[in-house]
Write the structure tokens for this entry.
Amino acid sequence: MKTLYFTATGNSLHIAKSIGGELLSIPQMVKEGAYEFTDEKIGIVFPLHAWGVPSYVADFLKRARFDCEYLFAVTTYGVYSGAVAKHLTDIADEAGYSFSYINRIKMVDNYVPTFDMKKEVEKEAKKEIEKHLEAVKSDIETSKKWMLNESFIQKKAFDFMSRRENKPFSKKRLKVHVYGEGIENYIYVDDTCTGCGVCASVCPVDNIEVDKDNRKIALNDKCFSCFACLHHCPSNAIHIKGEVNGNRYINRHIELKEIIDANK
Ligand SMILES: Cc1cc2nc3c(=O)[nH]c(=O)nc-3n(C[C@H](O)[C@H](O)[C@H](O)COP(=O)(O)O)c2cc1C
């Protein structure tokens, strides 16, 4: 079994590690130009963004080819999973493959414009993550065929949001999770930056240039708003306009080094 994953703050990596198999980081596959995968079972584990698949993971899936008996996807999310199964199915239809199983696991929501990470972590126990994870693992082990059932309204709302994705957005839109081009204009760095470069190491798209001498960083325009840089900055110098506060998050089962290794 091969388990492909993307993670910014460790939730999806924790799930991918627990599901097991040969773990393959999507950013590494993209950097190596590896898009063809063969195995009996292949899985994709990723964080949900804006009710669907993050644009970066979607781009990977559009190019990927899977030669397998059983293709599964598990998304991690915080509050509401929108129409992620529809989004995955649309991508797969277009690319010419199909998923046997699509499920989700509710975890800590790492979306700092809306949530206080301290409060989110306090809510973690109620989400019974390990119980849901065991159920998903058992489904995958037994090659269960199953899809998340999403309503007509969920799907229509997602289509509506997706159409607005690439237009300039206001602060209000930022708050309602509608991200698109220009996100780098909303992220700013304060003067506590030491130029240590952790942000550049966790950035999956190599979007950050580090000026160690002048203790500052510069962001290019490839950001797809995973927030890894914000969450892992050791001096908490990276912010997004409109964030609730400066609290940050990393999954308690995961070390920063694992995220650096996955995304560098
Ligand atoms: C830009 C962005 C958008 C998000 N959108 C949603 C969303 O629409 N619904 C939701 O429940 N969680 C949303 N989240 C929360 C993440 O899906 C969730 O915290 C995920 O488990 C993070 O996984 P990771 O730790 O592997 O990066 C969003 C997070 C980010 C950064």
